Structure formats: C-alpha cells, structure tokens
Amino acid sequence: MTQDDGELDSLVRKRIRALRVAQGWSLEELAARANVSQSTLSRIENGQRRLALDQLVTLARALDTTLDQLVETAADDVVTSPMIDAAHGLMRWPVKGDPGMTVVRQRMTVPPPDNPARMRAHPGREWLVVLSGTAVLMLGHKRFRVETNQAAEFPTMLPHAIGAEGGPCEILGIFDRDARRGHQRDGTPGAGPPAP
Predict the structure, then answer these.
(1) Quick one: pLDDT at residue 189?
(2) Helix, strand, or coil here: 99?
(3) What is the band of 196 on the pLDDT scale with cuts at 50, 70, 90?
(4) Mutual orientation of helices 27-34 and 38-46 as an angle, nearest 10°?
(5) What was the pLDDT predicted at 192?
(6) Within 10 Å of residue 176's Cβ, how many Cβ atoms?
C-alpha cells in the first residue's frame, strides 16, 4: 500500500463518520440502514477493519451519496481566479464540480428595460444575491426590489430582466447551463450576463 492509498483510506473513513454525524445518526442507526453490524461499522470508522468495496457501496447508499463521492480525493486546485470581462463589468467563475454552472459578478448602472419585448425567456434557473445597492428584477408582469443581502431565485422560462435602482448595484448570480446559454444569445443590458 502506498502513502497515497493510506491517505485515501483515512479520508474515506473520516468521510463516512462525518456524513453519519452530519445526519445526526448514531453508529447503531447507520449500521441498521447499511445492514452491517454496529461493531463492523465502528471498526471501519476507526481503521480497525479493511475497507471492502461491497461495504463501501452499501455505506454510500445508506449515507445518500455515491461511491465516487465517497472516495474522491481533494483537488489541488481549490482556489480559482475569475475570468474578467471589463467591457461588460463582469467577473465569471466556472463551477468545477458542475461544468454546467457559472457564477457571475456584475455591476449594473441602468434600470431594467421598460419594454417587455426586451425581457428574455429561456430554459434554466437563475439565482442571484445583491452585494450592494438595490436591484430591480422584472419577472413576467411583476416588479421586485432586491436590496443588499437579499437573494432571488426564479425559473428563466418567465420573461425577465434585471437592472439597478437609484444608483449602481452589484450582483452575484449563479446560472445553470441553460440559463447561461440563453444569455449568451443576448448582450442586452439588464437582460443578464452576456456571453462568456
């Protein structure tokens, strides 16, 4: 066994225990869910029993995770830098764990468009939080004020646009793949982030 194998073994054992504790389960409760004895589970968590693939699969299922997630190793590239689009006042961070997700930080200075024809609708979901200032979210025929530290989440099949109210505002948004694609086709201010 190499040092890396030993580190992975230790990581998996710690992860099993941490997931059990996070669920608020005792050894007895998880053992019952995984159909293993309490003493076997205790020895697995404490490193006194060899990790067997069939038991890991069963434990992963009982912990409501996958075997891949249970044994994945930490990546060295934890910290990432944003891609900066100065022309549109944007910073973008792709989400490594889900390539379909993008995080966007945007400064807005203009109100959302008054003309409903300039609002966008497309498949997907968006989530945003206002970091500073006040934003106005036009969603269908409704108008929402979103103030500093407030968040909004909505399906993007509703026609929507966002802009600033009473001065500049800064937002941080999370866009799934469909929402990002919908905005890539539109560089309209107030309609969301333009293409990366």
Answers:
(1) 40
(2) coil
(3) very low
(4) 110
(5) 52
(6) 19
